[in-house]
Design a protein that fits this description.
single chain, mainly alpha, Growth Hormone, Chain: A
Amino acid sequence: MTDANLDTIKTPLAIADYRRFWLARFLAVFSTISMVVLIGYQTYDVARADYGMDRPEAAFQLGLLGLAQFIPLFLLTPLAGIAADRFDRRTVVLIANLADACIALTLAVLTYQDQLNLPILFSLAALHGAARVFNGPALSAIAPNIVPPRLLPRAIALGSISWQAGSVIGPGVGGVLFEHSASLPHFISAGLLVVSGLMIMSIRPVRAKHEGPPVHPLRQILLGFQFVKRERFLLGCITLDLFAVLLAGATALLPVYARDILGVGADGLGFMRGAIAAGAALVALFLSFRPLENNVGVKMLWAVAVFGALTIAFGLSRNYLLSLMLLTMLGAADMVSVFIRSSLVQLNTPDQMRGRVSSISGLAISASNELGEMQSGLAAAVLGATGAVVFGGAGAIFVTLMWAWLFPEIRNAKTFASHYLDDTPAGDQRRETPV
């Protein structure tokens, strides 16, 4: 597609590369979310059935599972950002997808042979964390290179639909299949991850643009952290998500609710995870047609506060249908904050640093998710599952109030104003401001 055509298109879906990117992302999320949800359920079930643990002890294993995923994420994030900025981003995604496919295949075989135990589950979760840390920054940095900057917020919203649709369908299908054949959803995940990687490779080559002499990798890592530290606006956006979700990580305890509180089993767990993604997908679909344009900072803060309030309500619910409704609303509120934060971070980062900033943002997200799971597991061991969820929701509201005061730059963000991109065809980025 020529630059002239790019100037006239109205939607990112008119770009063939973006359509392939969208479908590849959907397949990858479908597979990995299904795998992760079932690993959580299998860990909790093995702890209860094979190790004879009571509910608090088994819930604590879910916390350790989150820690197992976070450690490689923490250690490898700087390298993942460098990889996304130095190499063809498609190749980085392909290798990460193939690694995840091997993990899914291993899970399938061991599940079929009934050979799973806690050390194996923790090891596979850690390997998945290592694969995911390279996938995230490279995949996130591809979209700004294949769509015009003026369409990037719409592309992010559409990309969120692929993510959330995979998050809805993957756990739902995986949970239903798991009840009939525990190994089948893992076999399917392995195959779809390979297909996803091959589709990413069908996109034109995507490599970050660099100006000036080569910079040592360690220096590049340092520059990425310095950039985020100096840009208080980006720092506030990234850390808000980190601390709010770190506390309000209700999803970590969904296996406890599914198995022992609501009594709905693995398929019910799949629908509970899917309900969160369904709410997010509906909001993402709306935002792809009607993107937010005004007072985006304040709206992000309100969205995080509502997320915390809905987490409290879910923690107290004992009705399955009510819980599904609350989880759907929780996912919708989360999507508003994710959409705004993603757009602001991508549009206010120079392309040649986007991989590193995306990796830092990804580390914050992973820390909030995986360490949030550990925090939830520890809290559940002390307060019980309900107490842990309610405490986390209240903590998210408190963090929102604190960040509104500590980072007035967020409150004052009126639009998605870009410092590094103008309204030109994709790839024609302005010269980077020296770091």
